[in-house]
Amino acid sequence: MNQKQFSEAVSSVTVRDTFWDPVMEVTRTQMIPYQWKALNDELPDIEPSHCIRNFKVAAGLIEAEFDGRVFQDSDVAKWIEAASYSLKWHPDETLEKEIDDTVELIIQSQQPDGYIGTYYSINGLEKRWTNIMRHHELYCAGHMLEAAVAYYHVTGKDKLLQAMIRFVDYIDSVFGPEEGKIHAYPGHEVIEMALMRLYEITKEEKHFRLARYFIDERGKQPCYFENEIETYHNEYPWKDSFFQFHYYQAGAPVREMKEAVGHAVRAVYLYSGMADVARETLDDSLYEACQAMWDSIVERRMYITGSIGASAYGEAFTIDYDLPGDLVYGETCASVGMVFFAHRMLKLSQRGEYADIMERLLYNGTISGMALDGKSFFYVNPLEVYPKKNEEVQAFRHVKVERQKWFACACCPPNLARLVESVGSYIYTQREKQLFINLFIGSEAEVFYGENAAHITLETGYPWNGKVKLIMECESGQEWDVALHLPDWCREFELYVDGESAHYMQSEGYLYLRQCWRGRHEISFNMKMEVREVCSNPKVRDNIGKVAVMRGPVVYCLEEEDNGADLHCVEIPSHAQFEETYRPDLLGGVVTIKSIGRKVMLEEASPLYLEDGWERYEEKDLLWIPYYSWANRKAGEMVVWVRKR
Amino acid sequence: MNQKQFSEAVSSVTVRDTFWDPVMEVTRTQMIPYQWKALNDELPDIEPSHCIRNFKVAAGLIEAEFDGRVFQDSDVAKWIEAASYSLKWHPDETLEKEIDDTVELIIQSQQPDGYIGTYYSINGLEKRWTNIMRHHELYCAGHMLEAAVAYYHVTGKDKLLQAMIRFVDYIDSVFGPEEGKIHAYPGHEVIEMALMRLYEITKEEKHFRLARYFIDERGKQPCYFENEIETYHNEYPWKDSFFQFHYYQAGAPVREMKEAVGHAVRAVYLYSGMADVARETLDDSLYEACQAMWDSIVERRMYITGSIGASAYGEAFTIDYDLPGDLVYGETCASVGMVFFAHRMLKLSQRGEYADIMERLLYNGTISGMALDGKSFFYVNPLEVYPKKNEEVQAFRHVKVERQKWFACACCPPNLARLVESVGSYIYTQREKQLFINLFIGSEAEVFYGENAAHITLETGYPWNGKVKLIMECESGQEWDVALHLPDWCREFELYVDGESAHYMQSEGYLYLRQCWRGRHEISFNMKMEVREVCSNPKVRDNIGKVAVMRGPVVYCLEEEDNGADLHCVEIPSHAQFEETYRPDLLGGVVTIKSIGRKVMLEEASPLYLEDGWERYEEKDLLWIPYYSWANRKAGEMVVWVRKR
Questions:
Q1: The Non-reducing end beta-L-arabinofuranosidase-like GH127 middle domain covers which part of the protein (chains A, B) (predicted)?
Q2: B428-440 confidence digits (pLDDT tens)
């Protein structure tokens, strides 16, 4: 296969899905217009972002100081990217005009040497690259490049892309192994992925080389950042931290990294870029580095919801098996980044474990970041809240029990938006004579094999049931594989082709159907979807003696709204009876689960410490809802991990 | 009874106890000389404290800048106080000379108006009282006053006392309700208690009035501190905190305080002072305020070890039933202060519950602050540690798994020292014709009743067994009560007087023996001491489903040294069999407890999440040691609360 095919396969997918359509729709109709107002300082009850205003200042249209965070430009970029994806399935002239105008403004702000970035364009270009560690210039460049690529793919318009190519050429003149260039790498990764997307379009070797340089240079000792701090007398906020330069993934060269450490978003953006470069170079050592980071996260440092980053301090990974549900960070951006990483690992090596994690994230720890109405957002995605504690106890105050309208650092909402609006691109991958169905999302797609094309229609009630129908309309007959992901949660399934029990080959989490496909074919894949109780590895201290409830890929939780307060008092039996009901009226339509548990009774006047044997229990009907849909009603307690009796 | 009798009863007690003698001895021979070196900057591996040097500068003997914390003088005061108590039971000319020299130096530093305090004496007296909230001037004054009182009581020398009376008179001229005086109160309490101790000696109404003023003025709105911040442009570190001025117990007048909040040491020092004033004034509203704070702590905000303060942020109380064993603060100083509070509540109202808490603290959360060899100290007293997490995860890094040699803020070691060296003063209280035995600590005491005296000898193997013998030698016959504390843990006991089963009256946690005592009498009090499993109130979320093991007043724990790692995997049955052994060779001589539990087995390669029903258990012999003696061998895991199967 070549890179081009990927892009084409991706661009030809249209999502038509009962689960995802509403998510994409609220993102398009609520979040994207809301952010447009935020970028333009048009929200009366929100602190001005200064985003567009900064570009106007940098373009010389108005006179003012730079304002906002040093990475403020990236919000504009992410908005363009998300809005572009939405145009693909919902053309909108007004929105396209807004993007075009914004592109014009960005180009007006571009410096003669190609540089784009309002912070230094306003504050003095001579100060560029004096704080690569913390000033996010390459991060903003990376996001703008992603935006340019997306807009180009969707609309064919290449104005922003051309401007960004000029900017990249300038960056290439500044960074590299050659003498006289700066031997450094971004303080916040993302440009690595973006350069590889650019390279997919341009096929210009230098674009790929720059991505690879940033990856290969990273973490070399002595550390560039340490030097930079001394040279420019910059602040170093992690001086007393345990992770030191590992916060920036700069503590060791990427091939020597032992564990996923430091800032979780930065980390998974880096690993995603590494996987992109590894796919191009077929560099085993880099692939092994990716796999080591993957294993570190997936085997030891990931919440059951797919969320990552156990510590608010540094928004970072901590240590193996440290996964507190209440002290958690689990930033929405990190979940989004983890989907990028999983997707790229899948492109590197078509193994079901990568698709499993992508699915775990898409139905749990990503979309939990947005309210069902698209109007409020979580930065932090906890697995357990107790409002009084989250409000009053300092160590838990970063965990909000209600989604917020917006954030001073507004990275998460547009990040989630660009994921949601492009979710179609994660469903299929294609390799020569193989079409892989990674996700069960209702969709239509055009697939090209050799000179021929096939039209694919995927119909499903996923994730509420395990029934998947794939209708293939093939121009002409040829033997190739259709490979269906067999999710890790699935223990029993039936597979039919054209009504007949299918012959399949099972390997690495996929079911391969090989035959000559000609004309219309119908594949029916019925996975038995039952409620199951899941445990953590006992090394996860916070979850010992506890279970979580899952159904298919969906993690469930108990909310105070349905189950009363004091959820820590609830216990469920090891082999509980579960009753599943599809409730179209509830939370946008969800399958709820009922079970019987018991609850320790509280007595008002009882002492703080008492002799064992005092407990009284009451039988307790429990109602479980999908984790992603929590906090859409009244604020209250919520818990995923429940004690097992 | 009058106040004088208290002091006399206290000063006549000599401890001769198998448990406490070694603790007092290592404090005297290790901690006190070590701190003397620290005060004099004579420790090669410790940052200089500048304590004595600051006094030399303030006295004009050398020229230098002030150095150290703003409350550095208080270390000198606490050292004098602890050293003074030690002189009482172990005369030491060299030590007494060191104190005398220090007193001379302090007096040399005293300003013409009576002020003592090196920070402003060096930095400019005109700046005094411009940051009462944070600059600890009244705190240092309070500790120096406590030192002066102690030294006077033990040695009869009144030089420091007279100097402090001059200082107090100066303070009295600055603070008070009168116009022209500052209407404020200490940012860190302690002087309230100290003034009441001074008043016991001087009987000067103004000393009492000043203590009462500081208590009555506190927390009035508008808040003095808020005003002070504005007037002097001072920093306010708690601006974004939840507790705001409650950090300083300045959020509400003391009689309107609802809960124990804010900085835990400050809080219990205040409550202790309130209890002292309430005892003098017989002010019901103040007594009720004390009782409300007592209930808040003891019923809802105290660890099983007696430690208080669940949050490192602000070294503070948090919310009801929030008692995490691992995120804990539980500062040693706060435990010491809680003993002060309990003792004063006991003097206010002779109820066993106060003695119970005093005992809980003395055998658990106070002495855990010092190594058995007296050479290292805990600031924070956790109930659960996992070294890797405590080293690498930011939120848990304030919890040390090994005691430290010393601290930059060295408040805890000398605070514990002054408690330990004066532990005898907590054993007895006397009220007219009643002698109360609050604690079972081997000791001799002279008791005065009317014109007569009795010599009391208390012999016991407490806390390792519940046998107590009280020998009374009474000058002449008179009817009065001897009242023995019946600890809350005790379910069965036998009580004999002169070999005969005793007639007693039981009330409020005390057993009253009333008779005419003449000549020699022997009281035998045998409490049945068994191991018991204790639960938390189920509102304590962190302890739900868990038990702790206690024996008598002693809380036990599991250490990795005896039980291997992964202590979170351990479970014990509800009605476990326990085997108790006195081990003279271990940890200075302790009763250890053996029980059989089980442990979840860990398998190396198992996944992070797996379907329920995977657990395998192994039988596990458990060895429990007293909590206070943990961390005296190799660093490793430790846990108090263990899951119940």
A1: 435-529
A2: 998 878 999 999 9
